[in-house]
Fold each of these.
Amino acid sequence: MTVGIIMGSKSDWPTMEHAALMLEKFGIEYETKVVSAHRTPQLLADYASSAADRGIKIIIAGAGGAAHLPGMAAAFTSLPVLGVPVKSKTLNGVDSLLSICQMPKGVAVGTLAIGEAGAANAGLLAAQILGCQQPEIFAKVEAFRKEQTDTILANPNPAE
Ligand code: RP5
């Protein structure tokens, strides 16, 4: 598998599946797994520290609330980690966003937007990173963006 999509709970899947759907658009292989930083800490350590040896190139990690999963995953691997703040019930995901984006200097997590858009963009950004080395993925990203642009230009009337 090229991309590992992990999340803190099964309840994150309706958000995180948008990362998976985006990767599928570009034909990128991925695996999905519930890995909780606080409920299954040893699993997180094992997953992240073995990911590079297993051939994973990028980890997408989504979590909500006190969302330490992406940061802890990044602590266990030098692979790029893309963090997705899942919308929480009490603070609408602002807690998740701040938990993920405010990494102290020295361990990086690339943070996306809260919720579905962030998950989809994590998949897109993973494709763009992989596309730097793989021309066929780069071409698919270019085609995706052109189609998006053409669709808007072909129908600019908001009332139609
Ligand atoms: C986090 O707590 C998860 O990432 C999830 O977003 C949130 C709530 O988890 P559940 O109580 O739904 O399992 O760890």
Amino acid sequence: MKQVSLLGATGSIGIQTLEVIRLHPEQFSLYAMAFGRNIEKALPLIREFKPTIIVVQDEATKVKLNKEIDHQQVFCGGEGLIEASIADSVDVVVNAVMGSVGLPATLKAIQAKKIIAIANKETLVTAGHLVMEEARKHQVELLPVDSEHSAIYQSLNGEKKSDIQKLIITASGGSFRDKSREELAGVSVQDALNHPNWSMGAKITVDSASMMNKGLEVIEAHWLFDVPYEQIHVILHRESVIHSMVEYVDRNIIAQLGTPDMKVPIQYALTYPERLDLPITEHLNLEDIATLNFERMDMERFPCLRMAFEAGKAGGSMPTVLNAANEEAVQLFLEGKISFLDIEKYIEQALENHDRIHNPDLSTIISIDEETRKSVRFHLN
Ligand code: NDP
Ligand code: MG
């Protein structure tokens, strides 16, 4: 029986993780759960799964929650996320919070030698060098939840790193894949949230539409698999059937295919190295799909992807700035304060205004993250 600590339990990945846990009561039990402020969504989950530890975003939410339930161990904020990640009984930490807020808890969980199933890509983008260094030091493996990285992980399957020619990451293209740059000028929040293939949280759905999600995934892949940016390739693949591939020096390509359903990579990360039945997900029917399409990725059409490659290659503090500016700009877009195309402008501005710091430590990353967010808000006024 694996005891799970689930950070981001009320989110899109969180809820699907709970569906997997619910399917296999013999294998998994929810020891800790963390969420933000959404008490309404959390209450039935708390009643059903009866976690020992509950974490909420702030003191005010804790007060509200305590009026609804009588629970011994309710923690708050970043400290709470750490408590939930390092508790002795916890075997696996599923990090599915949204944004760089997940970073300190990930580092502490690694130090406590927990198995880490990582959905929270912003953590790897903002501080990949720190996370991977810590993972190497403590000999902890990070199991990817992101579907592309789960695909690469499975396609690598014990092969030698020196035999990798390139990683080929597939992109569905998001909500606006058939719109021209001119048409993008007037799109609404509702249009952006309408993803053709995947049902996900609001921020990542906007990231998919801007192609920043793929950019973050390139940086995530660079850190998880220790492959240089020159050997990471992105192609458009509208069907989301091939979730990513690895090409080897001898021209063999190994791909992973599957139903576009996040429960598949979530369960794989939870059961690795074993596999379990997943009866709640449809089998992939290739005869129904019939055709798979691939297109070249256009970096002019999707400047967020270009900026992510550039920030990744520049290294140091640049990915931290890229990520923080993107998180803040997407939030402003969701609040209706800026247009869709403003997102890329704000990111470009933040990157231009930043003087790169070579090997930032945790406190430097946290302060650059805060400064970048402030400067994005400042330009708004
Ligand atoms: P959601 O926005 O749906 O969920 C985010 C979760 O994090 C919610 O439970 C939210 O709580 C919680 N949360 C947010 N801020 C805090 C905080 N400060 N303290 C504690 N909890 C917090 O996001 P997704 O599930 O879509 O994505 C989560 C992560 O997984 C992201 O990094 C995303 O990039 C990655 N990912 C997601 C995929 C998907 O299919 N959704 C696919 C691949 C990766 P509350 O509900 O109370 O606000
Ligand atoms: Mg993905």
